[in-house]
Design brief:
The complex is a heterodimer of chains A (107) and B (125). Chain A has 107 residues and is mostly beta strands. Chain A has no helices and 11 strands. In chain A, strands 2, 4, 5, 6, 9, 10 and 11 form a 7-stranded mixed beta sheet that branches. Chain B is an all-beta fold and 125 residues long. Helices cover 0% and strands 59% of the residues of chain B. In chain B, a hairpin with a 3-residue loop joins strand 4 and strand 5. Classes of the chains: A mainly beta (107), B mainly beta (125). Chains A and B meet through strand 5 and strand 10 of A and strand 5, strand 9 and strand 10 of B.
């Protein structure tokens, strides 16, 4: 199985900050990475697919990059509604696997 | 309206069988650009993919090795839905269970773009 390792597991930030979350795959997976946002009590929602393509309706302050084994999710100018948990997920192979999540909290 | 509607019990005793159903609206269980998945989430195991069913001229299934032998995911074509059965439940299976669509984007990219609301399943004697 492909392991997805996210860092950090949590971070504290303020509105307006730039936030960066990283995800490392246990093997090369080209750009087969998706990013999700999850709020408390809700299902995850797709933000970015194929490493850098913004899902329709997602604000442009979210961006993704990377290929191979290392991937990054960036939120520029953090907004109050962005405090949530973020997950990466690989779609290179089966089983689909997720990172353990990064909780973005208010400083 | 495009959505997945989950149903099923939330409380089980050890050794019982979990049965959950996911009704599809706005798409077809026969879609050749999607697969129909069950994913669970717990504090100890995070987001864990359990398995999927999908139609490619015939019905196909894939299951997580951790659940192999006690999991079945089947389509219900008459009602445009799919179902999860997980046997021999233990307290370690306590989690929020989600159904989700894994949708193909372009030639080779897939993503979970549609999720059910989740069912908290508690296994306790």
């Amino acid at each position: 199985d492909i392991q997805m390792t996210q860092s950090p597991s949590s971070l504290s930030a303020s509105v307006g900050d730039r936030v960066t979350i990283t995800c490392r795959a246990s093997q090369r997976i080209l750009t087969y990475v998706n990013w999700y946002q999850q709020k408390v009590g809700k299902a995850p929602e797709l933000l970015i697919y194929s490493a850098s393509t913004l899902q329709s309706g997602v604000p442009s302050r979210f961006s993704g990059s990377g290929s191979g084994t290392d991937f990054t999710l960036t939120i520029t100018r953090l907004q109050p509604e962005d405090f949530a948990t973020y997950f990466c997920q690989q779609s290179y192979g089966t089983p689909r696997t997720f990172g353990q999540g990064t909780k973005v909290e208010a400083k | 309206q495009l959505q997945l509607q989950q149903s099923g019990p939330g409380l089980l005793k050890p050794s019982q069988t979990l049965s959950l159903t996911c009704a599809i609206s706005g798409d077809s269980v026969f879609s050749n650009s999607a697969s129909w998945n069950w994913i669970r989430q717990s504090p100890s195991r995070g987001l864990e993919w359990l398995g999927r069913t999908y139609y490619r001229s015939k019905w196909l299934h894939d299951y997580a090795s951790s659940a192999e032998g006690r999991i079945t995911i089947n389509p219900d074509t008459s009602n445009n839905q799919f179902a999860l059965q997980l046997n021999s439940m233990t307290p370690e299976d306590t989690a929020v269970y989600y159904c989700a669509r894994d949708q193909r984007a372009g030639p080779d990219f897939w993503y979970f773009d549609l999720w059910g609301r989740g069912t908290l399943v508690t296994v306790s004697s």
